[in-house]
Structure formats: structure tokens, C-alpha cells
From TrEMBL:
Pfam families reported for this sequence: bPH_6
Source organism per UniProt: Streptomyces aquilus
Protein name, entry field: Low molecular weight protein antigen 6 PH domain-containing protein
Higher taxonomy: Bacteria, Bacillati, Actinomycetota, Actinomycetes, Kitasatosporales
Keywords: Membrane, Transmembrane, Transmembrane helix
Keyword hit for Membrane: yes
Domain Low molecular weight protein antigen 6 PH: 63-121
Chain segments annotated as transmembrane: 16-35, 41-62
Keyword DNA-binding: no
InterPro entries cross-referenced by the UniProt entry: CFP-6_PH
Length: 135
């Protein structure tokens, strides 16, 4: 039985704010198509593309998270979930993508040499995450 020890994701308030912003952007896009008297088929394509892009963005915000369980780590994305058992995880590392960005990412290095960014895991969460790892 998988017991969830920790789940790292955007808090509900932040998600609702961004989804509200996405909704406003979609409404503005539709309004722009209607106001500018775009031909029907072009407007339908533009609105469809905008709805798909905004929908994927909202879905990624709502679904993506990192789940730490007794048996390993699960990274949930828009379409798929990737799982690693604790024995498959070589290390958890803090990395800075470039020298110009102050953002720091937590990356999982597995035994096959692949790196995966853990969404919503901050540098301050790393000691807790390492403490949950069985010896």
C-alpha cells in the first residue's frame, strides 16, 4: 500500500488566481476575434488554438506536483506520471539553470543517469525530502 508522506504542489489560492488570469486571457482573445470582425473559419481556428493552449496551461497548473511516498517519488505532469523507487534514486541535487537566473531547481538524478526536475519542491524542502528517504 502506497502511503503518501508529502505532496508538493502550488497552493489552492495561487492556482485559483492563475486560472482566473487564464480565463481572462481566453475571454480577451475571444473578444478580440469578435471585435475585429475576423472571418468565421479563421476566428474558429484562433479561438480553438487559444482554448487548447490555455486549457493545457490550466491543466498543468492544476495537476503537476511531486508526491513523496514510502516506496519512492512520483512526479505528476499534465499527461503522465513518472515513478521512481527509492533504490532507483541516486541523488537529489540543487541546480541553477544559468548564471543569470536566481532560480534554483531541485533535480532528481536516477541510477540510469537521467535528471528530472521536481515541480514545486524548493531548496527549503530538501532536508525533509532527504530525511524521508529510507536508509
Amino acid at each position: 500500500m502506497d502511503v503518501t508522506l508529502r505532496e508538493y504542489r502550488a497552493d489552492r489560492r495561487s492556482r485559483l488566481k492563475v486560472i482566473g488570469l487564464i480565463s481572462v486571457m481566453l475571454a480577451c482573445g475571444v473578444l478580440e476575434v469578435v471585435i475585429n470582425d475576423v472571418p468565421g473559419w479563421v476566428g474558429a481556428i484562433l479561438i480553438s488554438v487559444l482554448a487548447i493552449v490555455d486549457g493545457v496551461w490550466a491543466l498543468s497548473l492544476w495537476r503537476s506536483r511531486t508526491v513523496v511516498r514510502a516506496d519512492g517519488v512520483v512526479v505528476v505532469g499534465v499527461v503522465r506520471s513518472r515513478k521512481w523507487a527509492w533504490h532507483e534514486i541516486q541523488d537529489l541535487v540543487v541546480e541553477t539553470p544559468s548564471s543569470t537566473t536566481p532560480r534554483r531547481l531541485i533535480r532528481l538524478h536516477d541510477t540510469r543517469g537521467r535528471k528530472t526536475t521536481l515541480p514545486y519542491v524548493a531548496e527549503s524542502h530538501l532536508p525533509d525530502l532527504l530525511a524521508l528517504r529510507p536508509s
